[in-house]
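Quick one: co-fold with zinc ion.
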Amino acid sequence: MASNRLACRDCHAVVEADEEICPICNSTSLTEDWSGYVSIAHPEKSEIGQEMEVTKPGSYALKVR
Ligand SMILES: [Zn+2]
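Sure, here it is.
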């Protein structure tokens, strides 16, 4: 089954399909059109986390269109 989770266009957080507001940055700009799932547990120690300017641990999409 394809995942229909959503990703935030503003902070790239991946959220459940029934979410309407990003729990990380409170943006309502969520999209199904994303790819590359990455789980970041320690953003301050993660190169990807720093590159994406992630400040909170969580699940993020590498690419959001
Ligand atoms: Zn967000």
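If it helps, Residues 5-64 form a domain with the Rubrerythrin, domain 2 fold (CATH 2.20.28.90).
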